[in-house]
Each structure stands twice: as C-alpha cells, then as structure tokens.
Design brief:
By secondary structure, the protein is an alpha/beta fold. It has 11 helices and 10 strands. Strand 1, helix 1 and strand 2 form a beta-alpha-beta unit. It binds zinc ion.
Length: about 300
C-alpha cells in the first residue's frame, strides 16, 4: 500500500464510548491532539433507559456534548455507537441518527455495535456462517443466537434500511495483530449476504489500557512501520487510560514513540475512504469469508473481547 504524503504506515483508533465521561477521556484526547493524532471517538446521541452498566455519558449532557463538538471541529471524527447504551426500537434509532446529523453536520460515517443493544446489526451468531456459527453458538450456549435484530425486516428493532442509507462503514472482526490491514487485507469490503451494511472494517484488539498497550508495544509498532501496514485500534478510552486526571504513563510513552514515526494519523473514515479509493468496491468471496471468520473465531475463543 502506498500512503499519502510519503507516509510509511497508517494508524488510527475507533473508541467505543462505554465508560467515557469528560473526566475519564478528555486527558486522553488532549494528549492525542498534542501528538498529532486524529482518531475516531464514538458517541451515544441520546439518553437510554436507566443507567449504562459500564457508565458513560450521552450527548444529552451539555458540557460533554460541547466538548465532543469541539473535538469534531479540531479534526477528530465522531462515530456512532448505536443510539444509546440500552436497546432502541426503530423509531428511536431513526431519531438518534437525525439528532447525530443535527449535532455534527452529517450522518455518522463509521459505527460499531454496542453489546447491550438488541438492535445491533448482523451481530452475535450472525457474524459467522456455516460450521463456525454452530461452534460459536455451542461455545456461547446459544445465548447470542438470533439475539440481535437490527437487520431483521419487520422486527421492532429493525433499522437496516437506515443503516444502508446513512452509515458507510461498520466494524466487525477484531484481531490480535497490530497490522489490521494484514489481518483483513480486503477491508473495507461488502458482504452480499449482509445487504444493509455498505462496508465492513476490522480492528486490532485493545479494549482497555492494558490490552491496548500490549498491542502497541515497541516491537509491534516497529513491525507495523516495517510492513507499511494500517492499524485501526478497537478500544474504550474510558477504560483505565486515565487515573486522577493523569494519562497512564505507559500509554503516554507508547503514543509519543508512535507519533515520532512517519505515520499517517487520520481518523477511521479518512483511512477507510482512502483504502476504498485504492481498491474500489469489493464483494467478499466465500473463501475470504471462511478465512476471516475462522481466524476471528479462533482469536475470539482464546482472548477476544469483541
Ligand atoms: Zn459498547
């Protein structure tokens, strides 16, 4: 892959908004901005029912919203992590997408499903096909079988048509390799079996500060650079990256080191648009699907968190 501006590799983050409050994530973003990174911060546009299990703030909080809008103005992408922290029926999802567009000037370009939301799209056992789906269902004791219904036409949770019309990229598989593009060389890809999602992308494992730092180790950074690859980290910046208002030392050291390399540090949507412009539309083949599903399932059964 040839990167713009003579860059050697690409790096970004898609930050799921669970746990995120002003105090738990603002210091992370201040540091990222100072170091020259522009990444993707997801949001919940509207309030949910009750309180979020993992904590986290929605765009209904004025001070938080103001801060997120400033982030957007400074070049960070704002992504979608479903309408809110709890499940939303069709009408609420439609309203949340409109609210998102009102707040940020356009519909979300990238999104990730949120585990608690029954309107997740092609999620749970629907991430897999064939024998891999059966293995997944057996291992998870059928808890996720037909659980998520955002893609099921006629269901109260259905919103697939709006996903197709408004959202460009949806995250699916997460892999241990820092070089996401090596683990999923066809991304962003379309899956004709899942018509309501325009394009899928993959990410690299790192849901909390420890796993994030492990994936971002010095050796891994050097390999990402040597391979000229692309990394889209999956994380929750609200999960342990800041304590007492201070960013984790190890995380700060690693990000500073990475920032000194000749990387292309753009948000997920910019990176994915670039990959798409280099490859054009790609429908995943059966063989590619088997390979991706198989390698994700093996990882998932060992350590994978999503
Ligand atoms: Zn989530």
């Amino acid at each position: 892959m040839i990167w713009p501006d003579n860059k050697t590799f690409a790096f970004t983050v898609f930050d799921d908004t669970d746990f995120a409050t002003l105090s738990s994530v603002r210091p992370v973003y201040e540091m990222l901005e100072d170091l020259g990174f522009r990444t993707t911060k997801s949001v919940w546009p509207v309030d949910g029912l009750g309180e979020p299990v993992n904590g986290g703030t929605t765009c209904n909080n004025r001070e938080y919203l103001q801060w997120v809008r400033q982030l957007s103005k400074r070049g960070f992408e704002i992504g979608y992590h479903m309408a809110t922290f709890s499940s939303s029926y069709r009408q609420k999802t439609i309203e949340a997408l409109e609210r998102f567009a009102e707040l940020f000037g356009e519909y979300p370009q990238t999104m990730a499903n949120h585990s608690a939301c029954l309107e997740n799209i092609y999620w749970g056992d629907k991430r897999l096909t064939g024998s891999r789906r059966l293995i997944y269902n057996l291992v998870t004791r059928f808890r996720f079988r037909n659980r998520y219904r955002g893609h099921v036409e006629g269901d109260p949770y259905f919103w697939g048509d709006h996903c197709r019309n408004k959202v460009k990229y949806v995250r699916n598989f997460v892999f241990p390799d820092i070089n996401t593009l090596k683990a999923c060389p066809i991304m962003p890809y379309h899956n004709p079996q899942k018509p309501f999602v325009n394009y899928w992308f993959a990410s690299s494992e790192g849901p909390n500060v420890n796993s994030f730092n492990a994936t971002l180790s010095e050796a891994n950074q050097d390999r990402l650079e040597a391979e000229g690859g692309a990394c889209i980290m999956y994380t929750h910046f609200g999960a342990g990256f800041v304590s007492d208002g201070t960013v984790s030392d190890r995380f700060a050291t690693l990000m500073k080191r990475l920032s000194q390399k000749n990387g292309w540090f753009v948000p997920s949507n910019v990176l994915l648009d670039y990959l798409l412009s280099r490859r054009e539309h790609h429908d995943i083949t059966n063989r590619e699907r088997r390979r991706l599903e198989g390698s994700w399932l093996r990882h998932k059964l060992r350590v994978g968190t999503t």
